[in-house]
Amino acid sequence: MPGIILVVDDDRAVLDVAAMVIEDLELPVLQAGNGAEALEILGANRNIVLLITDIVMPGMDGWELARIAKQRNPALKVLYTSGYIKNRGTLPSEEYGPVLAKPWRARQLHQAINRALAC
Q1: What CA–CA distance (Å, rounded) separates 25 from 110?
Q2: Alpha-carbon distance 46 to 63, whole Å?
Q3: Residue 106 Cα to chain centre, angstroms
Q4: At what angle do helices 106-118 and 12-24 cross, to 10 degrees?
Q5: Cβ distance 30 to 48 under 8 Å?
Q6: Residue 52: CB partners within 8 Å, gap ≥ 6?
Q7: Can you give the pLDDT at residue 76?
Q8: Structural domains of the chain ordered from first start
Q9: Sheet of 77-82: strands edge to edge?
Q10: Which residues does residue 29 pair with via DSSP β-bridges, in sequence order?
Q11: pLDDT tens string for the chain (119 positions)?
């Protein structure tokens, strides 16, 4: 088993759909509704290998969450999601990592997860 995936989004519906998609891949998944909750989960569980985080959230945004999480665990892989990307698909960011545009389809999330875990 490759480890646990943590999905972070302030939209409960997005969290639920993402969890279902990840479970379809037969991967374990945890959910957090904000950055602070995500950091608590990351601190309590060292088996998380992939962080999937929305970029725009109240309080701590996804960039800050990932920066802190990667300081604590440099091996952690990160996939960002955002509804504020004009082009659709997965956009690479040399500085931060891949960004998956919302609304994504299950197949797009599957592919993005597989790419992230393969790196």
Answers
A1: 8
A2: 20
A3: 14
A4: 70
A5: yes
A6: 5, 6, 7, 8, 18, 78, 79, 80, 81, 113
A7: 95
A8: 4-118 (3.40.50.2300)
A9: 29-32, 4-8, 48-54, 77-82, 99-101, 90-91
A10: 5
A11: 469 999 999 999 999 999 999 999 899 999 999 999 999 999 999 999 999 999 999 999 999 999 999 999 999 999 999 887 655 444 445 556 788 988 999 999 999 999 998 87
Residue with tokens 């082009």: 87
Tokens of 19: 């969890």
Number of H helices and E strands in the chain, helices first, is 4, 6
CA-only gyration radius of the chain, Å: 13
Residue 59, classed as helix, strand or coil, is coil
Question: Which residues does 55 contact at the CB level (< 8 Å), separation at least 6?
Answer: 61, 62, 63, 80, 81, 82, 84, 99
